[in-house]
Amino acid sequence: MYFRPTPVERPEELFDREEEVKALREAVGRSPMVVVVGVRRVGKTSLVKAATFGMRRVYLDLRAFEWRRYITLDDVLGELGRAVSGLSKRLVELLSRVEGVSVAGVEVRFARGRGRPILHRVLEALNQWGESEGGDVVVVLDEAQELAKLRGASLLPVLAYSYDNLPRLKFVVTGSKEGMLYKFLRLSDAESPLYGRYAPRVEVKPLPRRLAVEYLRRGFEAAGVRVSAEVVERAVDELDGIIGWLAHFGLMAVEYAKAGKSVEEALEASAEAGAELAWSEFCNFVALRGSGRYVDIVRAAAEGATWSEIKR
Ligand SMILES: Nc1ncnc2c1ncn2[C@@H]1O[C@H](COP(=O)(O)OP(=O)(O)O)[C@@H](O)[C@H]1O
Ligand SMILES: [Mg+2]
What we know:
By secondary structure, the chain is of the alpha/beta class. The protein has 13 helices and 7 strands. It has helices at 18-30, 44-51, 73-84, 89-96, 119-133, 156-165, 178-185, 209-223, 229-239, 243-258, 263-289, 293-302, 307-311, and strands at 33-37, 56-61, 101-104, 107-110, 137-142, 169-175, 201-203. The longest helix is centred in the last third of the chain and has 27 residues, at 263-289. InterPro entries: ATPase_dom, P-loop_NTPase. Pfam families: ATPase_2.
């Protein structure tokens, strides 16, 4: 088990998470839609990819839309076209029968504008793929709250259609921003197409302290780098059990150790790089919202203001 800069792909590469894998697979087995939530870098993408490894799977990384103010149906179809390309000959053949879809080898292209394919038809083709092979097709909408930015169309009717009529399609929707995710899905809004649909929720939590320490210890051992128990404890003090930050520190520490530098320095550098990353994400967020108010809110929160003080 090594530290890695990118999400885990295979179940055997996951540290811990046996229960979450089991819960997710079981939920996918019994429900057309499953929601996976947890803060950034806690390991949602890794969990979902590993738990669905080897299944027929269409994976959409919607972080592509994170810093966009709004997106169009063509943007969504563009991502979907990329996601279905190269997956299976059978699928490409089924998609090629849909109007507005062209194929070249195993590459799939969706026409844009007026000639674009109807999303229902595309999902039907995905469902047929599952049916023809006697199994489910998992569609992962990773960071699905970004789809709330869609203008000029809504995805909820087609999601509801699929939920009710396409038994082989299983949607796994993840979100780092749980409030925004549920606001997008509107499962409990009587006016919403998805109203009343049951969608089990799987939460990915930070590692408890004992496991965070264990993760670092085993990672360093696998990399052949000696790190004192004290430094490991201190890293967990600073980074908590967010596995993405622990991995970030682990990678840096291994690099530092190989260059003959101290691991303590790596902890400092990693915390600094993390803060910088968080800062740039925050700046992007403020720019996206187009309001300096968020700067004031965060400043007040950092100074320990209470909720009512912030509101005032
Ligand atoms: N269970 C795990 N075992 C080992 N590494 C993990 C695990 N979960 C996440 N990671 C690592 O942590 C980082 C962030 O994980 P990711 O799945 O991208 O988080 P999220 O999707 O919640 O933002 C990645 O570098 C990934 O390799
Ligand atoms: Mg992710």
